[in-house]
Each structure stands twice: as C-alpha cells, then as structure tokens.
Amino acid sequence: MTDPDDGQREPRITPPESVPPVSAEELVDGVQPDPGLEEEERRYPSTIGGAFYLLVLTVCIVGVGIVVTGEWRSGIRVFGGALLLGALIRLVLSNRDAGMLAVRFKAFDVVMLAALGSALIFLAGSIPDQPGV
C-alpha cells in the first residue's frame, strides 16, 4: 500500500479559463492564428463545401418528398443522384473547403457517397413492379 504523502503528486490540470479559445477551422492547416491580426467576420456557410452540403441536403429532401407523393422510383433516383453529386463535389474540393461533406478522409467519403448513390439508383431501376399496386 502506498502512502499518499510519499512525495509523488499527480500533474496539475490547467483550468479551461487559462486556455485561449481556438477555432477548429483555423487549425485545419495546423497553423495557429496570429493574435495580432484582426479576426474577420464569419460568413455562413463558412466554406464552399458547406453551401454544396446544403444543396445536396435540399435535393435529398426533395427526393424524399417525391417518394412520399407516390413516385418512389423517381424519388429514390433523385436521392441517389444527390449522393453522387455529393461524391463528385467531395472529390473536387480540398479538405479545407469541403465543409460538412468531409466526414473521414477524402477517398472514404467519395467511395461511400458514390457507392450509396449508385446502389440506390440501381435498386430503384431493378426492383420489379408489384402486381396490384
């Protein structure tokens, strides 16, 4: 059994108030911002990828709306097309500009979006019509 006063102390943890706040966007390139520079006003969405993400999301919502109205094949194709569009945009944009389209590393994001979009479009075209529907 060890004595708590044996001369070994746990390291002190710095309180959060003494740690300067740093935006994750500023750390993308691994560069700390210069404290002497003025901070530019934030624009929304803050990256071009954020705007494309909103576009892909909107097209997906439109696809779900088409499915709800009864044209499920068309809706699924629109949804799959939106995912393929997202894959293409993620492939073209840099990591810094990809915004919310960047989930993992670029190759993984592109392959997953393209695979899901392609699978949805393929399945929407290959499922036979059901009799009586």
In short:
The chain is mainly alpha-helical and 133 residues long. Helix content is 47%, strand content 0%.
What do you see in this structure?
The protein is mainly α and 133 residues long. The chain has a domain at 48-126. The protein has helices at 48-68, 72-92, 106-126. Helix 1 (48-68) runs antiparallel to helix 2 (72-92). The longest helix is centred in the middle third of the chain and has 21 residues, at 48-68. It starts with 47 loop residues before the first helix and ends in a 7-residue tail after the last helix.
Task: Give short descriptive properties of this protein.
47% helix; mainly alpha; 133 residues
Distance between the termini: 76 Å
Number of strands: 0
**Beta-strand percent range:** under 5%
Q: What's the total helix number? A: 3
Q: What kind of sheet is the major sheet?
A: none
Helix/strand class: mainly alpha
Helix content: 40-55%
The ordered string of helix (H) and strand (E) elements is HHH
Output the radius of gyration.
24 Å
Low-confidence stretches: none
What is the overall shape? elongated
> Please, what is the average pLDDT?
80
